[in-house]
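Budget justification aside, the reviewers requested a transparent look at the raw inputs and outputs of the sequence design task funded under Objective 1. We therefore reproduce one unedited record. The lines immediately below are the structure tokens for a 133-residue chain.
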């Protein structure tokens, strides 16, 4: 599913974590500073409400790197640091929070290297869930 925005329907949210259980956060970014905004995004998704516009920005073009993976970016740093991005992936019933980064991921070679290492964890999170009995 590749939509330009998070669908305004209730979905579960899953945080993709590193092997040590932490959320992938680019070096130099203090996760705590952005946690309230990240949790606000989560509340909107879980309740099915549209995200406030300040989490989106008009793009100057298509982002082929993120688009090729089905990822979206949300601007979580409004009022704090406008360069900080939350990378997410949307499935039919879930939104995966992949990592907290900034625009430097587009300068990495290969592009997005710091987030690509999470590939197997993302794939596992997208597997269908077995019904609880």
């Amino acid at each position: 599913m590749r939509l330009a925005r998070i669908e305004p329907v209730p979905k579960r949210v899953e945080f993709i974590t590193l092997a040590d259980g932490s959320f992938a956060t680019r070096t130099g970014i203090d996760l705590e500073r952005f946690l309230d905004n990240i949790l606000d995004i989560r509340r909107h998704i879980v309740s099915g409400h549209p995200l406030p516009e300040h989490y989106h920005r008009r793009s100057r073009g298509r982002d082929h790197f993120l688009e090729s993976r089905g990822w979206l970016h949300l601007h979580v740093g409004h009022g704090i640091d406008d360069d900080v991005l939350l990378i997410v992936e949307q499935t039919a019933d879930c939104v995966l929070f992949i990592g907290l980064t900034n625009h430097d991921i587009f300068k990495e070679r290969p592009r997005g290297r710091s987030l690509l290492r999470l590939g197997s964890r993302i794939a596992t999170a997208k597997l269908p869930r077995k019904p609880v009995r």
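The two ends are 28 Å apart (CA to CA). Residues 41 and 58 are 18 Å apart (CA to CA). Computational costs for records of this kind are itemized in the attached budget.
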